[in-house]
Amino acid sequence: MVATNHILVTPIYFIALPLFFAFLLPLLGKIYKSFIRIVPGLMFAYLAWMAVVLLLYVYKTGNPVIVKIAGWAPPIGIDLVFDQFTGFIATVIAILGFLVWMYSYLFKKVEFDNALKYFLLLMLIYAGSIGVVITGDLFNQFVFLEITGISAYALTAFYRGRDGAEAAFKYLLIGSFASTFVLLGILLIYTQLGTLNMADIARNIDKMDPTIKVIAFILLFTGFGIEAEMFPLNGWAPDAYSQSPGPIGAVFASMTSKAGLYALIRLSFTIFDFSSANELLFIMGILTLVFAEGIALRQEKIKRMLAYSSIGQIGLIMIAFSFNTYLGVFAGIFLMLNHALVKSLLFFSASFLAYNSPHKYIKDIQGFARYMPVTALMFGIGVFAIIGFPPFSGFWSKFYLLSAMAEKNFVILIILVLSVSLIELVYYFRVLHKLYFAEPTGEYQPHTPRWNAMLAMVLLALIIIAIGVYPDLVTGFIGKAAHAIMDKTTYINSVFSI
Amino acid sequence: MSNLQILQITFYGAAILLIAIGLYAVVTKRNLIKIVLGLSIMDSGVNLLFITVGYISHKTAPIFSPSVMAKYKTIHAAAQAMVDPVPQALVLTAIVIGFGVTAVALALVVRLYRHHNTTNIDEIRNLKW
Fold first, then answer.
1. Does residue B129 lie within any of the structural domains?
2. Nearest residue of A to residue B106 by CA position?
3. For residue A128, which residues of chain B lie inside 8 Å, CB to CB?
4. What is the domain extent for residue B26?
5. A279 near B CB under 8 A
6. Which chain B residue is nearest to residue A145, measuring alpha carbons?
7. Residue B13: inside a domain
């Protein structure tokens, strides 16, 4: 049994509602100015609730929720797939979307136009990211990728004073290459198979000409890899993270990069049948990890450091998935969850730490712990969680990653991951040291976060600690998700059974 | 060589040439406007490639107009006489997306020009490239 046509709870709303309200927002702002803050919040709250309801339904019954759009059954029509894996990632994005909204509820309180732009683009980037994850159609995925991309360019160029336009142009150049690659890859698949539905492509993939199959895979992998911040195509990421408004760093880390990563995983696990796809994931993962963590060590600015650390985590996730074992995939999904939660907390707190220092250098924040103890504590929790100390969620994700490696007897990899954790320890503790133990210069008076931002950070920290203390809260969902992504046949069958 | 082959070579050649020209402009030109133009040309090349792939020789546009229906009687027969409509629908979407990206890119160029008073990419180097 597949629930497709429930009126209140259907995956279509993840895409339809944000798009609808994004276009309606300027009008709502004309009626009552605070609507531009309240309405997105109600929508994000509703979608987060809906995501949890759907995920619980899928988890309990074991049946994915698949929606055919406009009454056309796949492979002709477009379908949305909310199964154990896509549903889990969509739920993470939905909950983070709500928390980002809560954090930025009073963002640009006096500048109506800027606030309008911000909330509008936030809803669009949210719709695009969830769309990439839940769609079952390759071309549809490309369209959502572009929605995500265009709103990300605009958000990067949000501030006029900074170098936002430069960062956004750089992002746009690389992003346009990504979309051209994806489009050419889709074209090659279409000429060979005459279909765009992922499940249909997956079941017919052996009918493709081997050479063209390889070229199509490389084109799509490169295109989505750019969005997932894969080495060496991630030159845009640190600039975009550091030039965009504070909460958008969290959006990039928890939504857009997750969407790109999801597309890479779906390509390697479901659509194509290369055994060497895992090796490609593995090599790119190692390169991304080593390169990013190495550069993070040398960063002087706090947001750039967080951005490189974020890229490093993406590398770690790719390595975990490349094992293609249950434990590896399990660790990869756990890492995705952990990265989304912890990196958001870090960006939330760091953007307040760096708020008043004009150049956002790490040395500017010395002694800030005295001015804003709670924010500093939140940053500290984030640091401990990302490095992997118990009792935070990061401990379990790294623990499962190491067990996955131990299962395959990758001793060198275990050493690599542990030494990378050591590098993380060095550069994060440098910041913590400045924050807590250096004498304040008194040059800058930091802004203390407002109640809504504080609440969002405390909620995130509580979730991180709760998962750290009771990992069983999420391991059930993650386990089902890992089974779902590794089981290609069930995916294909469930798409065609509706 | 038949007419069809000449047609195919021309169209595939033109599409690949457009992509190459666009790529060349993006990689070598230093003027921001020229880079945006290059991106646009690259997009057009990909779109042309899509249309060419969907073309089937001696077939008509995929529209069930009264004149087509009068000629072929049944829907099935009419459909047999048409080119593949999917690439055309995809290209329509891709054109709109390309338009959006170009608009954002030009807006960014304006912003950059106001900020730096130049459109030369070499002189805009506040960030590491």
1. no
2. A169
3. none
4. 3-123
5. no
6. B97
7. yes
pLDDT in tens, A57-84: 999 988 888 888 887 888 888 899 998 9
Q: pTM for this structure? A: 0.93
**Does the beta-carbon distance from B101 to A160 stay under 8 Å?**
no
Position B125 scores a pLDDT of 72
Count of structural domains within chain B: 1
Residue B90 lies in a domain: yes
The answer to whether residue B44 sits within a structural domain is yes
User: Residues 194 to 253 of A: which have CB under 8 A from any B CB?
Assistant: 196, 235, 239, 243
* A286 within some domain: yes
Contact A179, A171 (CB under 8 A): no
Total structural domains within chain A: 1
Give the pLDDT of residue A1. Answer: 39
ipTM of the complex: 0.90
Which residue segment(s) compose the domain that A34 sits in?
12-496
Low-confidence ranges of chain A (pLDDT < 70): 1-6, 162, 356-359, 442-446
- For residue A2, tell me if it sits in a domain: no
Q: How many contacts (CB atoms, under 8 Å) link A and B?
A: 77
Query: Would you call A139 an interface residue with chain B, using a CB distance cutoff of 8 Å?
Result: yes
**Structure-model confidence comparison of residues A498 and B22, the more confident one:** B22
Domain presence at residue A456? yes
Task: Give the model's pLDDT for residue A388.
Answer: 87
Q: Which of B35, B93, B104 is the closest to A143 by Cβ?
A: B93
Answer whether A157 touches B (CB < 8 Å).
yes
**CATH assignment of the domain containing B90:** 1.10.287.3510
